[in-house]
Please model this.
Amino acid sequence: MEAFLSNIDRVVDGFSWTVRLTLFSALFSFILGILLTAMRVSPVPLLRGLSTTYVEGVRNTPLTLVLLFCGLGLNSALGLSLADSVALDVFWWGVIGLSAYTACFVSESLRSGINTIPLGQVEAARSLGLTFTQNLRLIVIPQALRTVVGPLGSVLIALTKNTTVASVAGLGVQEASREMKLMFDQGVAPVLPTFVGFAIGFLILTLPMGYFFGWLSKRVAVVR
Amino acid sequence: MSAQTVLFDVPGPRARVRNTLYTVLTVFLALIGTAVLYLGFNRTLSERESPLFSAQTWAVNPQGQWAADKWEPFLRPDTWTGYVIPGLQNTLTAALTASVLAVVFGLVFGVGRLSEHWWIRVPSGAIVEFFRGIPLLMLIFFTMALPIVAWQLFDIPTGTFQVSALVAVVTGLTLYNGSVLAEVFRAGINAVPPGQGEAAQSIGMTRTQTLWTILIPQAVTSMMPAIVAQLVVLLKDSALGYIIAFPELLRSFTLIATRESNVIPAAIICALIYIVINVSLSRVAIWLERRNSGRGRSSARPAAANGAPAPVREGAGGLPTPSGTAAEPGVGDTATESRTEEEPGDGDDPGPGKGPGGSGT
Model:
């Protein structure tokens, strides 16, 4: 355990990338998810079709492939660079891949939330003369968000764990699981304590998140 | 609520004009996006000097990703027999093995968590929470490193045994998805109406008999959609084997991509194969869900838990899992349609538990 603790700075460094990946991806996937949901329920058939195709396509593709496509396809083959340093460049491509993937799940949660809103709410809004956008922004989304706090929390937890896939070849963000693998391979510390240490790190991130969202979903639940 | 028909009125003349405008705008943006991708993958980095509006820029570049040469490998039988099919076999082997083991793991620990002995309940809970809370990839890495652990802890020489990539993938998939399934089973068993268990005990069945002959069959039936949805996640997660060089489907395609330098065609076809398999599996989940909800007075329905006559299709009282299926395999239009027939606002409560993708990658 001492050998592991003496490398604690590497662990903290790995988790700092994990946390940054999670935060930025959560932000972007949330925005994109709301956009996709709005498209999904919009009056324009083309937008609905696009959103459905995107969500169903990306949701059923393995995340490894999505991130590999970002790393090997867009970053290397297309030659799109997002930052000067390699570490930041792959980081942002990781964020893009994770956001593109997670947005599908955000959108699916939100859509199931929209389905829980009583018909009368929307009918009342329409009879007041609210437009589609106003209806969505003022009536539907706020209520839908409250009912899907729980599922969105699960999505965030899954995202936190999914950031480990950003260590995939062709991308290689130096996040926690990659740091752990490197420490295994370099033999700087015994494997078991290293594994347990990193596992505790992830539990520190995910368990409170689970309890927080469980509490929050009860707190903001809509009583009907 | 049927979002599609209720959120907006039947478009009048102005709305129709506006919608057409949005459609045109979307088509325009989509065309720009497509053009950027087309051009980006058409020319290699060194060839990107020619002006935007010239025939040379837009013509299919024989070196680019859209050239017929780059797609041609997928028309040759040897690509399929030599790479794709063996990869698919490995993916399916790993996924099937892990599915069976995960269901067993899930049953054991899901039931374990409900045990009345604390010395079974507490460890079961700890194991489930642990494997659910850490990333699958870490489990796979750790399993790969087991020979080193054996050497460091018990002085077993490193050559004594080896962990193959298949074993590592299957172990990881089993532990992670098994833990998620344990929660599914637990929720399912809890959702069986208490009268079922009470009746079984009153005719003299033991607790174990009650569990295995009365509660679990009903729980499994009602949870079938959630179970299938988790198996889709498992299949998708098997692609993580790529990272530890397990020769599965994704790895086959990267090998093809390296050999033929056709990253983009390979990625597209690989994604299509995964999508076809997963969408078919999701359809099975929806079919099961429909079939279940069509059952007459089956007590297996989670909704009956609160004693209501159960107009609610999934999950009364915020049950952890069944609602996960609402969002998870709820593929496209079929799910939406089935929803429109429901009474507004009487259910579909997306419970707090394993929401969409509350699991897996």
